Amino acid sequence: MEMDFHFYSACCFLIIFSKVSTAIDTLSPSELLTDGMTLVSRTGSFELGFFTPGSSENRYLGIWYKNIPMQTVVWVANRRNPINGSTGMLKIESSGKILIQVQNTTVVWSTNSTARVQNPILQLLDSGNLVVKDGKDSNPENYIWQSFDYPSDTLLPEMKIGIDLRTGFHRRLTAWKNWDDPSPSDLTYGIELKGNPEVVLRKGLEKYFRGGLWNGNGFSAAPNYRSNPIFDYDFIWNESEVYYIFFLKNKSVMSRVVLNQTQSERQRYTWSPETQTWKLFSVQPDGNCGKYGLCGPNGNCADEFPACQCLTGFRPKLFERWNSSDWSDGCIHSKPLNCQSGDGFIRIGKVKTPDSTNSWINKTINLKECRAKCLRNCSCMAFTNLFVTKGGSGCVMWFDDLLDIKHQSDAQDLYIRVSASEADEVEDNNLNDGEDKDENEDIDVAVFEFGTIAQATDSFSFMNKLGQGGFGPVYKGTLANGQEIAVKRLSKSSGQGPNEFKNEVKLIAKLQHRNLVRLLGCCIHGDERMLVYEYMPNRSLDKFIFGMEVMEKRQAFGSC
Ligand SMILES: *[C@@H]1O[C@H](CO)[C@@H](O)[C@H](O)[C@H]1NC(C)=O
Ligand SMILES: *[C@@H]1O[C@H](CO)[C@@H](O)[C@H](O)[C@H]1NC(C)=O
Ligand SMILES: *[C@@H]1O[C@H](CO)[C@@H](O)[C@H](O)[C@H]1NC(C)=O
Ligand SMILES: *[C@@H]1O[C@H](CO)[C@@H](O)[C@H](O)[C@H]1NC(C)=O
Ligand SMILES: *[C@@H]1O[C@H](CO)[C@@H](O)[C@H](O)[C@H]1NC(C)=O
Ligand SMILES: *[C@@H]1O[C@H](CO)[C@@H](O)[C@H](O)[C@H]1NC(C)=O
Ligand SMILES: *[C@@H]1O[C@H](CO)[C@@H](O)[C@H](O)[C@H]1NC(C)=O
Ligand SMILES: *[C@@H]1O[C@H](CO)[C@@H](O)[C@H](O)[C@H]1NC(C)=O
Ligand SMILES: *[C@@H]1O[C@H](CO)[C@@H](O)[C@H](O)[C@H]1NC(C)=O
Ligand SMILES: *[C@@H]1O[C@H](CO)[C@@H](O)[C@H](O)[C@H]1NC(C)=O
């Protein structure tokens, strides 16, 4: 009877492994996974087994997508210890430790399990996570070990990149050396915690890209990036941990982040079922300004030519080099600061926040207090508020040189320290006014059809011309509903895209002073840009033409 039972179970075991191996997603201490056998996650999304990368002759234990024809490895166990030949086997010990042995003796790779477990089991989950757990306990908190804690070059949905602040444990991506060799190269991607936490792509000691500060809703480098249809992401920062994570919006769409050694890039790919290929969705660094610190200290980068400008209130440190497009020396204050007798601040418009290495944060202080705090500390060079989801609360201050700033029309405003003579008093007053209002609320401005404006102004007739400001002529008009308007036709030189222009109009609307005329909206026609104001007959013409100019000019310079 007992003999029979043994025979029966051994028989079943063999059948399961050889015939329907695709159904198996677990390995227990009595079983071996030899080269050629695989585990497949429950619904068949991922597969674990031995593989040979590129034209290498080595064998590695790895995890790849099961349901696509192109082998795409997302995790490698023994990336530093390749196996020569197909004698590798994976097993799990009763302690919960998993190991890869060759020729049944030499251990080439193992986990460091110290847990006491009753009934350890190794399971490949549908997320692509390989986990060791105790029996049927599938609470992720209780996993004894998981491959998601030891990323290779790929970030999968629901996998964390970051730091456990209680233990100091880091999870970061490391690129493969090359197509044939999964061993770790010097290209890494993780969260760095000098100053405020930021995601950073590094090649060796050199920073290649950083994401900017998290504003509660997005990263400063790409604040509106979450509105894509494929995935959403989050950045968690509390006492216990700091990490980046992403989720699929539609579980049947595949998306992964991978480090590409040859390009020195962080790339995101999504799978295209139509073409049966991975499509490049995004890369970092990207554009003119992607590369870290292109414009040197206190430089400001823009996706235009030349890429670098000094921040407002600064001048090139070495003119000759700067003029020959060598921006590495950056910029210095054009008028020296004098902290004792009082400096001031100037708002430089929407930018990706500077490198946070030398920065400080308080999540509750408001913008006005933030300014006061920064002013008092002579080494504080810039400040801003953050956390748009909480109405723009939070105070971040930067010390020393400002690095890796980039113009970004949908990002935060940054206030930088300049000598009192260059400071922007209007701005400072606005700061006071704006104390209890939501700094980041999205003001809706109307976008008028060109036809509407042309009709209202009688095709910009000479009779309707009110005057001429530095930025272009102003016309009076009457809308079909009887409302009287003043239209400022801006000179055509700006070369701004429509979205950028709309963002600036929103800014002007946000900044407009109570005593001035109300901005109703804008009008975009080809490369022409127009601002539409409420017309108030009792106000002096100068206010239309020059009053607003102060703000428009400030805005225009701020965005340069
Ligand atoms: C791999 O094994 C083969 C045959 O056993 C041997 O000829 C070869 O030198 C080995 N290669 C390495 C890199 O150990
Ligand atoms: C591998 O080792 C196990 C026990 O450690 C043994 O039962 C088995 O025969 C060995 N297999 C080979 C191929 O040496
Ligand atoms: C196990 O611990 C050693 C020493 O701390 C470490 O070098 C090794 O990478 C660890 N192995 C795994 C698989 O984490
Ligand atoms: C930190 O955030 C994570 C994710 O929201 C949460 O699980 C954890 O409990 C938080 N820890 C603390 C100390 O708030
Ligand atoms: C999810 O994606 C699949 C494949 O692209 C598509 O067929 C399906 O309609 C999508 N579902 C939703 C809810 O968008
Ligand atoms: C690296 O990126 C280049 C360009 O996007 C691409 O052609 C290549 O296949 C990528 N390499 C890997 C290993 O994905
Ligand atoms: C650099 O360019 C600026 C602006 O074009 C010019 O005023 C300045 O004289 C130039 N300086 C040198 C040293 O070439
Ligand atoms: C932030 O500032 C508030 C108000 O000044 C203070 O009460 C709080 O302790 C500060 N928090 C930190 C973490 O410094
Ligand atoms: C200014 O801030 C820096 C960084 O937080 C700090 O080390 C320094 O002590 C502060 N100086 C003053 C005068 O508060
Ligand atoms: C404009 O001024 C006239 C005369 O000063 C006054 O009667 C009228 O009420 C004013 N209109 C508005 C809208 O302020």
Automatic annotation (TrEMBL):
Cross-referenced Pfam families: B_lectin, PAN_2, PK_Tyr_Ser-Thr, S_locus_glycop
Domain called Protein kinase: residue spans: 460-560
Primary location group: membrane
All copies of domain Bulb-type lectin, residue ranges: 24-145
Recorded topology in the membrane: Single-pass type I membrane protein
Keywords (A to Z) from UniProt: ATP-binding, Cell membrane, Disulfide bond, Glycoprotein, Kinase, Lectin, Membrane, Nucleotide-binding, Receptor, Serine/threonine-protein kinase, Signal, Transferase, Transmembrane, Transmembrane helix
GO molecular function: ATP binding; carbohydrate binding; protein serine/threonine kinase activity; protein tyrosine kinase activity
A GO CC annotation given for this chain: plasma membrane
Gene Ontology terms describing biological process: recognition of pollen
Domain Apple: 339-419
CDD domains registered for this protein in UniProt: B_lectin, PAN_AP_plant
InterPro entries listed in its UniProt record: Bulb-type_lectin_dom, Bulb-type_lectin_dom_sf, Kinase-like_dom_sf, Pan_app, Prot_kinase_dom, S_locus_glycoprot_dom, Ser-Thr/Tyr_kinase_cat_dom, Tyr_kinase_cat_dom
Signal peptide stretch: 1-23
Protein's recorded name: Uncharacterized protein
Organism of provenance: Gossypium raimondii
Subcellular location: Cell membrane
Organism ancestry: Eukaryota, Viridiplantae, Streptophyta, Embryophyta, Tracheophyta
